[in-house]
Write a structure and sequence with these properties.
The structure holds two protein chains of two kinds. Helices cover 39% and strands 14% of the residues of chain A. Chain A is of the alpha/beta class. Chain B contains seven helices and four strands, in the order ααααβααβββα. The longest helix of chain B is centred in the N-terminal third of the chain and has 12 residues. The chains are: A alpha/beta, B alpha+beta. The complex binds flavin mononucleotide (FMN), iron/sulfur cluster (3 copies) and FE2/S2 (inorganic) cluster (2 copies). The site of flavin mononucleotide (FMN) has 23 residues of chain A, from strand 10 and helix 21.
């Protein structure tokens, strides 16, 4: 380990030496992802065989293996990239290692059969930078993940880490830092999109022991960029918080992180420890006389704790119930003191802004939303993973060019953005540029950046029911409109999905929605009707089909549809009959098969299996 | 659980690791939960004394947060992700398959004390859905059959 850095020059010298070492010679670097996603697919055993195989081949000195955080293409994990060439091997298994070591690392050849095959063009691609999923992204915030072992502070320093802190400590007045963040136009990435500079300025104005708090509760189901940042590049969050602390002259920070993210907690704690040891946290940071330290607090799996006042109550060791914001948390928040809360990704932006200037930052994005945004592109889409693009990129580029479109030749139906408080966006808006304001205009919102793609087989009434069910569970229950209103809306939707919808139900939902929106105490309640209201806005015909025709056109709500084998389309291949768990399908070879409705449990296995689209939803 | 079955020195160590700070009540209970898979009610009077908090606060924290249970749970806690990304990829089918195989419903524990079946809202492995966690292990890209194979790994 390196000695405690006593001043700025020592940090600069250290960085210079690290960069020089890195550039030296022909040493190869294997970046092997060990984020939660890839870890689940078996990075640990790949690593062991890699190290053993390199030793056997006598290459241990010439090749460095670096276990990094998430590269974003988690579905294809474990992911390996060999630098400097950038050779990309997806889905690496231990039995592939001998070939990779022998051919690629020893002889400089490509192992053709292990290459990534683009699901759209069906072409094999050698280099990471040529893969459509990566090619169209702009990875300002997320890019360093794959060059860094998150447990090694030196890797971060070598990648220009803590340069922003240097500038903030030694070249800028606190006021200037805030001005720079304001000028950059940075808006909070946690959901609300509140201007970060304005928040900092109002917190700095209030006297007391100010707190800088990081929201890593990541409650939006389907979004995981905060986890990947915290896990893969924790020092960038620490640096962002440090700069915020200098700007607001705060000496105590907290990270509130979900208990369900054990690796993020672990890597963050390791990073905090090494930052302390090297003199980047604690007393007299880099000899500047400035003190700041960060504590970690683990949340307890409650969505509402992501709300600012609830989060602060939870930090105090109490149940996380929101309070009315007559007094803002920047004046009286955690421990009744001025507290500034920002999201993980918001902090990750800060060092870049201080390093490269407000003007550079504001050159990316749209009029009202600057910089880039990481989206979690998941659901029914070919390439799933984390996607960072400039604000203002349209949905079509994200879903089709980067995401590769909808799998299994199915049709796009909607993309859900903004989590449980957001909305479902239909096809007609695919060319809308994605930023904070445009999404609100079409009834949805950015939220934390979850983008769940839904295909033709998704029932929008069921989606609305799903979100309300989620919110009913998560409502803290202290105010009536939210507790009872959500429950009533859910009852109506459950009834509709069960085939007992009545004339007037749609109007009842709209009325209840308006009431809950207006009279709930916190953001959970006020935004809870959104999934219902946007699906009603764009998919009203589906509600009507459920209520009037007693049909679920997507084939999701079991009482409202059945499967039928289409005469003329069925080739009699017999696959469905073999797969059916109920033996409900019979028929002779090469003849149209018959499905016995009495035996069928509507499990959908036959529908998914048939290669000829011969099974219809009726 | 009997009072004598509790590893008191371990409990004391956990409380000390957090400097007996009442603000750390939730984390202390989570750490205790990591040992027993639940918070044995026997430890509550001890927490009252060591942290100087009221018994009612402990109960309200324990019932508010989902990661804490005051009832014994299985040796392996299966948390099927029901987050949106997993939902649209058929998480419900995974829950059904597991419930059927184990003969329990969501929220229940098998009679032999091996498995508890539960739901979690998202574990942040959304690109690999449907996902389930078994204690701290993540299992991705599940379908009916791989979900049942997953159980076998823990039955040994
Ligand atoms: C019900 C609810 C849940 C929230 N969950 C989160 C969350 O998980 N993560 C987050 O960063 N912000 C969340 N927020 C937004 C926070 O209240 C707060 O606005 C945000 O953390 C501020 O940081 P930012 O300005 O950097 O976005 C949530 C808000 C509400 C109303
Ligand atoms: S709106 Fe809902 S979650 Fe928010 S305080 Fe009221 S009951 Fe609790
Ligand atoms: S799988 Fe399709 S084509 Fe084959 S028998 Fe069944 S319905 Fe007919
Ligand atoms: S839906 Fe399931 S039970 Fe019904 S016929 Fe198809 S495979 Fe058999
Ligand atoms: S965890 Fe490996 S790419 Fe995301
Ligand atoms: S939605 Fe299942 S892991 Fe995120």
């Amino acid at each position: 380990m390196v000695d405690r850095l006593k001043n700025r020059d020592e940090l600069i010298t250290l960085r210079k030496n690290l960069v020089a070492q890195h550039k030296d010679g022909n040493k190869k670097l294997i970046s092997l992802c060990s984020g939660s996603g890839c870890g689940a697919y078996g990075t640990a055993s790949v690593y062991d065989s890699l190290v053993a195989e390199l030793k056997k081949a006598g290459l241990s000195d010439q090749v460095e293996v670096r276990l990094t955080g998430c590269h974003g293409f988690c579905e294809k994990g474990p992911i390996m990239v060999i630098h400097p060439e950038g050779i990309f091997y997806p889905q690496v298994k231990p039995d592939m290692i001998p070939d990779i070591v022998e051919m690629t690392l020893k002889n400089g050849e490509i192992v053709e059969k292990f290459l990534f095959k683009d699901p759209v063009s069906k072409k094999k691609i050698i280099h990471e930078k040529d893969i459509p999923f990566y090619k169209l992204q702009k990875r300002v915030i997320f890019g360093r993940n794959q060059m860094i072992d998150p447990t090694n502070v030196l890797h971060y320093i070598a990648e220009d880490g803590y340069k922003g802190l240097e500038k903030a400590l030694f070249e800028m007045e606190p006021q200037q830092i805030i001005q720079e963040i304001k000028g950059a136009g940075l808006r909070g990435r946690g959901g609300g999109g509140f201007p970060t500079g304005i928040k900092w300025a109002s917190c700095a104005k209030h006297d007391g022991d100010r707190y800088v708090i990081c929201n890593a509760d990541e409650g939006d189901p389907g979004a995981y960029m905060d986890r990947s940042l915290l896990e893969g590049n924790p020092h960038s969050i620490i640096e962002g918080m440090l700069i915020a602390a200098v700007a607001m002259q705060s000496h105590n920070g907290f990270v509130y992180v979900r208990h369900e993210y054990p690796l993020a907690v672990k890597n963050l704690n390791i990073a905090l420890k090494s930052a302390r040891e090297i003199g980047l946290l604690g007393k007299n940071i880099l000899g500047s006389g400035f003190d700041f330290d960060i504590k970690v607090s683990r949340g307890g799996g409650s969505f509402v704790c992501g709300e600012s006042t609830a989060l602060m109550a939870s930090l105090e060791g109490k149940p996380g119930r929101p309070r009315a914001k007559y007094v803002h948390t920047v004046e009286k928040g955690f421990r009744e003191s001025p507290s500034s809360l920002n999201n993980v990704e918001t902090y990750a932006n800060v060092p870049h802004i201080i390093n490269n200037g407000a003007e550079w930052y504001a050159s990316m994005g749209t009029e009202g939303s600057k910089g880039t945004k990481i989206f979690s592109l998941v659901g029914n889409v070919v390439n799933t993973g984390l996607v960072e693009v400039p604000m203002g990129t349209n949905l079509r580029t994200i879903i089709y060019d980067i995401g590769g479109g909808i799998p299994k030749k199915k049709k796009f139906k909607a993309v859900q953005s903004g989590g449980p408080s957001g909305g479902c966006i239909p096809e007609q808006f695919l060319d809308v540029p994605v930023d904070f304001d445009e999404l609100v205009k079409i009834g949805s919102m950015m939220g934390s950046g979850g983008m769940i793609v839904m295909d033709q087989d998704t029932c929008m009434v069921d989606v609305a029911r799903y979100f309300l069910d989620f919110l009913k569970e998560e409502s803290c229950g202290q105010c009536n409109p939210c507790r009872e209103g959500i429950k009533q809306m859910l009852d109506v939707l459950t009834r509709i999905c069960a085939g007992h919808g009545k004339e007037g139900d749609i109007e009842l939902l709209e009325e209840l929605g308006a009431m809950v929106q207006k009279f709930s105490l916190c953001g959970l309640g006020t935004s809870s009707p959104n999934p219902v209201l946007t699906t009603l806005m764009y998919f009203r015909h589906e509600y009507e089909a459920h209520i009037k025709d007693k049909k679920c056109p997507a084939g999701v709500c079991k009482p409202l549809f059945h499967y039928e084998i289409v005469d003329g389309t069925c080739t009699g291949c017999g696959l469905c009959a073999r797969k059916c768990p109920q033996d409900a399908i019979t028929g002779a070879k090469k003849e149209t098969h018959v499905l016995d409705q009495d035996k069928c449990i509507k499990c959908g296995i036959c529908y998914d299996a048939c290669k000829f689209n011969a099974i219809a939803i009726r | 659980m009997k009072k004598t079955d509790i590893d008191w020195p371990k409990i004391t160590k956990i409380v000390q690791d957090y400097n007996s700070d009442p603000e750390c009540l939730l984390m202390i209970m989570q750490d205790i939960s990591d040992i027993y898979n639940y918070v044995p009610p026997e430890v509550i009077p001890v927490l009252v004394e060591k942290l100087g908090v009221s018994e009612s606060l402990i109960y309200s924290v324990a019932t508010f947060y989902k990661t804490i249970s005051l009832e014994p749970r299985g040796k392996y806690i299966i948390n099927v992700c029901t987050g949106t990304a997993c939902h649209v990829r058929g998480a419900e089918k995974i829950t059904h398959a597991l419930a059927e195989e184990l003969g329990i419903e969501e929220g229940q524990t098998t009679a032999d004390g091996m498995f508890t079946l539960d739901a979690v809202r998202c574990v942040g492995a959304c690109a690999s859905g449907p996902v389930a966690m078994v204690n701290h292990d993540t299992h991705g890209a599940l379908n009916r059959s791989s979900a049942l194979e997953m159980l076998d790994q823990y039955r040994k």
